[in-house]
Amino acid sequence: MGKLIIFSAPSGSGKSTIVSWLMNEHPELKLAFSISCTSRAPRGTERNGVEYFFLTADEFKQKIQAGEFLEYEEVYKDRFYGTLKSQVETQTARGENVVFDVDVKGGCNIKRQYGDRALSLFIQPPSIEELRNRLVHRATDAPEVIEQRLAKASYELTFAPQFDHVVVNDDLEKAEEETYRLVKEFLEK
Question: If we measure between CA atoms, which residue out of 139, 80, 104 comes closest to residue 15?
Fold first, then answer.
């Protein structure tokens, strides 16, 4: 039976970089992303059941009513994202260790529901100032969007104590190694 590994972090903390490294460099950990549902249309080459399960907004709402989601969020009106409990159970039954890349509230909810079967990791930037530098150098957002992300990051940082471990990403290689060690120890328990 597989286990669950939850990653949360403010935007620009390097979470996606660390998770990609872990999954690509350490196949022995048998990590697999949880496949989420969304009510948005597929983009480009996305296929149902591969990148996402694509549902209509009404189908999504019916599954919410039926209590089928582990966590979900309405990002915009009728634009939902969420994780089905049944999908997580299917993946863990296959022996996969399911990786969640979720916001802080979703991370806390999953940890609450699965307890010791889940490891929750919070990837923290060294400081808000360093986060600002990263977002500016990433050059993907307008200045007002960067300010919104920083305000959200300050709020998200208040959730860090609710996670099993906080990994400070001030040196990417060290953060990757620390994350690997924490995940490996958890999976060997």
Answer: 104
